[in-house]
Amino acid sequence: MTHDTRIPGFHRLSPEQRRETVFGANPTVSDLFRTGGWDPSTSARWVEDVLGPMALPFSVAPNFVINGTPQWVPMVTEEPSVVAAAAHGAKLAAGRGGFFAQAGDAVATAQLQLQVTDPVTSWRLIEERSAELLALLAPLDPALIAHGGGPLQLECGGVFEDELIVHLHIATADAMGANVANTFAEALAPHLEGLTGGAVIGRILTNAFPRRLTRVRADFDVASLAHGDFSGALMADRILRLARWAERDPLRAVTHNKGILNGLLAVTAATANDTRAVAMAAAAHACGPDGLRSLSRWTRSGDGLTLSGELSLPLPLGTVGGLTVAHPLVRHVLEAIGLTSAARLCETTAACGLANHLAALRALAGEGIQAGHMALHRRKAGTDQ
């Protein structure tokens, strides 16, 4: 495996040459990519009523440096220009040290809706016995406990006329956490009913993941942003204007944030994680009192030489459980390129989102997105000359 991902001309190599650049001469990798990891004897159990596989392109984006370490970024997407945009944004960031990211706490939150006569008194009873209730749940998942996870805290999530909402926070280690959150919530429900005399109606995780906030930032040399007839200084000014537009206008913020999700969801799909959970967590985080708001923040240094971007959002991602373990290609890729911890995966995914965002803003601020985007569409259709 090549450690430095900044490979000149990487996009001009054949798929076989790219695989060898990333993984070395490895027959196992070649076989996995030839089949996409599909094995009829086991893959039909992944989901119901399977007919067979459907191929989507599995790419790696080069040029990423994250917290000082070079990183290949796996991406699966049907949309042309997304991988190229990620690689270009990463190349611009690498000129100033790359991306600096910090994963949030790996915590999932389950909610229980408890119908009771006196919600305030019921919560007081639960709060007094919270340590005991949490201890009852721990034996349900000894593997999670062994890896430093487990039930963390009970919290009052809301008090209504005849309802109490209880939040159960769970440390999920390297798991995404949906299944463990739902398992613990369902196990907790009868204990809450016995303690309060109420009835649990709903018990399920929230896909908002409010405690799992990942942050990433990067600096870009303004001079490197020059595009066509536009100077770097003019491009920086136009990018800031686009960012300000998204902060003021929820309709613009939707597409502004979609440029971030282009990268986020491509990495999520490539690592067999839950794309719907990531999309909804991002959307929930972006919703403010005045409507949808920008997930990112862009500023320029006082001397005008540096453009800085910051991104923060919850990322419910895991490297154990589900298809991340069952899919042989995904498992091999994660291990080979060093994405075996959920924290590193979250940081890499956020960096990819910010790289895609910078590239999209730069294109939009310059000649527009269609020139490069449609050129790749024509190549996909085989109509380019």
How many helices? 15
Radius of gyration: 23 Å
CATH 2nd-level architecture of the largest domain: Alpha-Beta Complex
Q: State the order of secondary-structure elements, H for helix, E for strand.
A: HHHEEHEEHHHEEHEEHHHEEEEHHHH
Query: Which structural class do the helices and strands define?
Result: alpha+beta
Helical amount? 40-55%
CATH topology (fold) name of the largest domain:
3-hydroxy-3-methylglutaryl-coenzyme A Reductase, Chain A, domain 2
User: What proportion strand?
Assistant: 15-25%
Total number of distinct structural domains: 2
N→C terminal distance? 35 Å
Overall shape: it is globular
Overall pLDDT metric = 93
Looking at CATH, the homologous superfamily of the largest domain is: 3-hydroxy-3-methylglutaryl-coenzyme A Reductase, Chain A, domain 2
Main sheet characteristics = 4 strands, antiparallel
Q: In CATH, what is the class of the largest domain?
A: Alpha Beta
Spatially, the strands of the biggest sheet line up as: 3-8-12-11
Q: What is the tally of beta strands?
A: 12
Q: Are there runs of 5+ residues with pLDDT below 50, and where? A: none
